[in-house]
Design brief:
CATH architecture of the largest domain: Alpha Horseshoe
CATH topology of the largest domain: Serine Threonine Protein Phosphatase 5, Tetratricopeptide repeat
Helix content: over 70%
Length: 413
Amino acid sequence: MKDTVEIFGKELEYDFLSGWIKYNRLQNEISQGALAYGICSISHLSYFENGKKRLRGEIIEALLKKLNIHQIEEFGDIGLIRQQFYNMMFQIENLNHEDAKIIYKELLNVEDLISTSPYNIEYKIYQLMYNTFVEHLSYNDLKQDIIALDKIYSSLSQELQYLHLFITGRIIYKYDDHNEGIERLANAYRLKETPWVNYNLGFSYCFNNEHLKGTYYLEKALESYERNGRYINALWCHNYIGICYTDLKIYEKAEKHFKAALTGANHFNINKILGHLYINLSYLYFCKENYEESIVWTKRALETDSDPLLSASNYVEACIKLNRIEECTEMFNKYLVKEYECSIYYNLLYFFYLSIFNFEENIFYEEVTKKILHYYENINYFNLCKPMKLKLIEHLEKKRKYKEANKIYKEIV
């Protein structure tokens, strides 16, 4: 069956026409019945929009005219533009955001022409990718774009369905809902297994307290990235595999992966990952109850350009174990100040402050339950919530509030 059809004198791919028509119909708030009236049956239009039936060129033209689209402008070879899409995606996956920005800037030159063509949907999906991974826009910033594309999902080609599920899964996981995000990533994986989707699935399971699944997908991604010489991606795989093994209490393997990433980062001068590796090594040695070694790595993390509040929190936690409260106070005086209030980890450091100086007072319970836990649960940082809840249980048991303590314990279980 022919994969193209002539529309307004131009040969166009069927794969992009159905989604484009459905998208424009929904954007203009026109029902299927109103659009199909006098042109074709509603069922024919419905099957066409969902990619289950093809329509003749003259019928498609009539539908477009009813949507106030009377011509499709020439904007060059779609193959060349599509190559730009792929190049941009490759640079984003390789964490080369500066080159991705250059390519995106070039695509903006033809944005107005693309927006009046059937390839507008494809462009919007790659634009969503750019805004998610490069500009780091939040779910709320992109919510309307995601909803609009969700509505035409069934009309997309399999490749675009994969990309849409992958991109939206990543952003929904990060900002809105872990379970829905993972479900979308898993569905993307079923459509097309790639090292990038393996990496993001592994990352997502890692920080959803599903560490065995995390190692499974991250190790698949690592094998592929190493085989193809994509060493920057491989370093990040080592880093997150190390986190998974740390939380699984398989410390020898965790250390092996962190040290592999550290060796690679130093060899290739990848400084951006160093702060992450230092703080993760400090956490590894904390879990091994080697608090002095934990502090060594925390101090290194504080010397990098990464957010110092997480490093300060790890430093304080190790000092608490060593009963070095004066050093904790130095950290609080330096970092628990207005300058750092915007940090995600400000409330974590504040939690340790309360744990030291206000543990048996009501302010500890009030601040942790109404402010700190609420904050981290809202941003899906559940890995930080469990130790806080355990400390809350300890606080409540000291006050003989066993019923309330048991309720929190059941939440953790």
